[in-house]
Amino acid sequence: MAGAPDFIEVYPGALAPEACRALVERFEASGQATPGATGGGVHPELKHSRDITLGGRPEWKDAEIALNQAMFAGLLRYLRSYRYALIAPLMLQIADPETGRPKRLDADDFERLDDARLAPIARQVFRPGSINLQRYAAGEGGYPYWHCEHYPRDTGGDTLHRTLLWTIYLNDGFAAGETEFLYQQRRIAPATGSLLIAPTAFTHTHRGNRPEGGDKYIATSWVLFQRAERLYAAR
C-alpha cells in the first residue's frame, strides 16, 4: 500500500547541541565506560562499543532526567501520529474532556486532549527504561548484528515490556554510522540532537552501522509498559 507508515519517526532538535556536546565530554571524562553488551552478554563481533548505564548512578541523575524529558516530548508527538500505540493494548478510561464523565479513550479524543492532559495518560501506561550512553569508535565500532529489542531472557519480563525503542544522536560529522532497519529498507543518518523512535518488535529488526572518520555517540533506551501490578492494581 503506497504511502503506508513505517512507524519510524525522527524528531530533529530534541536535545540542544550544547547539551549533546556536554554529554559527550562527560562520557569521556568519567572513566566509567565498559564494553557494550547485548542481551546475551559481551560479544564484540555483534556489538562493539563502550557504554555507560546511567541508572543507579547519582552523578548522572541530571543527565538521565534531561534525556527522559526529551524522550517524553517526542513520545507525545509519536502518540499523536500513532494513537493506537496507546489505545490498542489497554481499554483505558478517561474523564470525557467535555462532560467529565468516564468514557473509553478513543482516537477522536486526541483532538480534544492537549499535551497537559495527554501526558498523565501516557505516564499511566508507559515507563522509561534504563538509559545507556554509548560510543562507537570510528572504523571499528558498531552493532552489525540484526536484532530487535524483545527477548525472553530476564525473569522479570522487562525485555518483553519494551514497546518502543529510542535513540538520541549526540554527534554527527562522520560518515556512515546509520541506524538501519531491515524490513523497512531505511537508514537513519545521525544528526546531533535528533531523536529516533520506532517499535521494538521483530518487525523493526535493525542494526547500527560502523561510523567512519569519527566516533559516534548516542543515548539510547526504551519505552516500556508499566508492570501489571501498577496497571491493574485498582481493578
Compact summary:
With 235 residues, the chain is of the alpha+beta class.
Mean pLDDT over all positions: 94
Structural class estimated from helices and strands:
alpha+beta
Could you give a short account of the major beta sheet?
A: 8 strands, antiparallel
Proportion of helical residues: 10-25%
CA-atom Rg in angstroms: 18 Å
**Strand portion:** 25-35%
Rounded to the nearest angstrom, the distance between the terminal CA atoms is: 40 Å
> Number of DSSP helices?
6
Count of distinct strands: 16
The succession of helices and strands, N to C, reads EHEEHHEEHEEEHEEEEEEEEH
Oligomeric state of the chains present here: single chain
Global outline: globular
Weakly predicted, low-confidence segments: none
Could you characterize the architecture of this molecule?
It is a single chain. By secondary structure, the chain is of the alpha+beta class. Helices cover 25% and strands 27% of the residues. The chain has 6 helices and 16 strands. The protein has helices at 17-30, 61-81, 84-87, 115-125, 158-161, 228-231, and strands spanning 9-11, 34-35, 50-53, 93-95, 102-104, 126-128, 132-136, 143-147, 162-169, 175-176, 179-181, 186-188, 195-199, 206-208, 211-212, 216-225. The longest helix has 21 residues, at 61-81. It is globular, with a radius of gyration of 18 Å.
